[in-house]
Amino acid sequence: VIRCRAAVAWAVGKPLSVEEVEVAPPKAGEVRIKIVAAGICHTEEHTLKGSLPNVEFPVIPGHEGAGIVESIGEGVASVKPGDKVIPLCIPQCGECSFCLNPESNFCQKSHLCEPQNLLPDKTSRFTCKGKQIHHFLWVSTFAEYTVIPEYAVAKIDAAAPLDKVCLFGCGFSTGYGAAINTAKVKPGSTCAIFGLGGVGLSVVMGCKAAGASRIIAVDINKDKFARAKELGATDCINPRDFQKPIQEVLTEMTGQGVDYSFEVIGHADTMIAALASCNMNTGICVMVGVLDSGSEISIDPMLLLTGRTWKGTVLGGWKMRDAIPKLVSSYLDKKFNSDLLITHTLPFAKVNEGFELLRAGK
Ligand code: NAD
Ligand code: ZN
User: Whose CA, among 72, 270, 324, 335, lies 20 to 30 Å from 292?
Assistant: First the structure.
């Protein structure tokens, strides 16, 4: 058993509390990882607010991180102590029908198909003050050590800087893949991205890498525009600067509406605006933002009848175990610069300050 620090969410709406926890050794088929760096994704904020379904408290959140294998359970063959790894909040068992389908990345042997935030054997490896603490999406990267099923771990290049590639566990991969895999953005096309947080800016990067000729970035916080331009946005617009709905502004800017639109915020009204912003016939709109659990969206069916496609994405459509090591290699080969997504670096004890910065749009 390892004693270390972890940020525990004891109840909905409470700040995280950095506590000493006990982390049990990995059982058969599991890996214990020393987490070196973690990012903060807005999905974490949804979790702390209690608006993500099936999350039981107390829980150790965090799903975007990178670390080093500390020990392995019986039968683990794909990683060994000392390997650099990224924990995967969508695993890849390699055997289920979705893993066998080249078009899918939604492994059925995951916490999402069997809602519970314990490990697959329905127990936890975390205790704090004598109480069992839940895992989060199996990864719980806000702990100095965490235990994860082997098929939810991706081994990456030993040269990778963990404080930079931790973003590949969620934010970067989601946004970049939403453009490349889910929308399949074509060269010369026009794109609109609603929401320029870490994930939305990664969509901008994906659209640019796919060769889009016009990339329109949309946010109500104009402080995000300089970074968006640096990453490839050709136009940046603030819906609050216009009298008319933003979908009309985008349609006028592009003639018929964009070829691809992305909602990367998580609000029903911006989901509808993004859908209406892509062209009525061949436009593709990708839903990336997470709505509060139980929310519903009502749309005019004509929006789809004329031919538009509306789709969602989980982690950018990547088959995570296969894709993450390749994305890390591309990063090391300088194919893109995801370091520009990093705005602040804080010591672990200041994790709540990180959330303050996220809430403040910094
Ligand atoms: P973030 O908080 O860093 O960024 C959100 C951005 O949206 C901010 O820049 C904010 O100013 C902007 N915004 C808010 N309201 C707006 C409005 N009405 N119009 C235009 N812009 C507005 O968030 P993030 O970490 O980038 O995450 C974005 C969303 O993606 C969240 O909902 C998150 O849960 C979701 N997400 C989904 C997946 C997935 O697999 N589908 C993965 C990761 C994150
Ligand atoms: Zn995330």
Answer: 324
**What stretch of H or E contains 48?**
helix 42-49
**340: its two tokens:** 């520009």
Among 42, 106, 194, the mutation site with the greatest number of ligand 1 atoms within 8 A of its Cβ is: 42
Average pLDDT, the chain: 96
> Which residue is it, tokens 């506590």?
19
Do the Cβ atoms of 233 and 243 come closer than 8 Å? no
Percent of the chain with pLDDT over 90: 95
Give, rounded to a whole angstrom, the gap between the first and last alpha carbons of the chain: 38
Q: What is the pTM assigned to this prediction?
A: 0.97
**Which amino acid type is present at position 356?**
E
Enclosing H/E stretch for 286 = strand 284-287
Report the pLDDT averaged over residues 284-304.
Answer: 95
Angle between helices 351-359 and 42-49 (to 10 degrees): 100
| Residue range 57-91, pLDDT digits in tens | 999 999 999 999 999 999 999 999 999 999 999 99
- Strand ranges in 150-202 using DSSP code E only, listed in sequence order: 153-155, 190-194
Place of tokens 């399949």: 184
**Cα distance between residue 291 and residue 287, in whole Å:** 10
Nearest listed ligand to the Cα of residue 199: 1
The residues, any chain, with a CB within 8 Å of residue 13's CB and separated by 6 or more, are 48, 49, 50
Give the binding-site residues of ligand 1, using a 6 Å CB cut-off.
41-43, 46, 170-171, 174, 194-200, 218-221, 224, 239, 264-267, 270, 288-290, 313-315, 358, 361
User: pLDDT of 247-272, one tens digit each?
Assistant: 999 999 999 999 999 999 999 999 99
